[in-house]
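We were asked to recover a plausible sequence for a given structure. The inputs and outputs are reproduced exactly as logged, with field labels preserved.

PROBLEM: sequence recovery
POSITIONS: 132
GIVEN STRUCTURE:
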């Protein structure tokens, strides 16, 4: 994983494509699948880099992901989602707000899409409530 911040090689501003390009081929392929699942679930989401990792925003933060030495992580940007989906996450290491998936294990793409859609609905509901 790149260091903290959004500056890539040669001091250039990094985007998600650059983040993926900076990874070893096996990690790049896995996280490209995760990226595609997120974009399919939230095609209108803004894609960017925050805290050195890819993030997606639509009416607020949706999700982020990051590559690490032995696993990649999905961050639903809301601590309730990991607990709410505990049964679906059996077999994965989790923290309060992060799902860790070891390399070599198929990424749970259906769950990624489901979490993104739930986060999108939550953000839209919050926006409607705020407008009242």
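RECOVERED SEQUENCE:
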């Amino acid at each position: 994983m790149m260091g903290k911040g959004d500056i890539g090689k040669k001091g250039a501003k990094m985007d998600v494509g650059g983040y993926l390009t900076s990874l070893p081929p096996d990690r790049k392929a896995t996280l490209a699948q995760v990226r595609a699942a997120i974009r399919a679930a939230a095609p209108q989401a803004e894609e960017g880099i925050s805290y050195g990792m890819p993030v997606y925003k639509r009416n607020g933060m949706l999700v982020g992901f990051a590559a690490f030495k032995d696993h990649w992580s999905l961050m639903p940007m809301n601590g309730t989602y990991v607990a709410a989906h505990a049964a679906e996450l059996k077999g994965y290491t989790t923290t309060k707000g992060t799902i860790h998936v070891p390399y070599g294990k198929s990424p749970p793409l259906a769950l990624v899409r489901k979490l993104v859609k739930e986060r999108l609905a939550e953000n839209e509901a919050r926006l409607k409530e705020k407008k009242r």
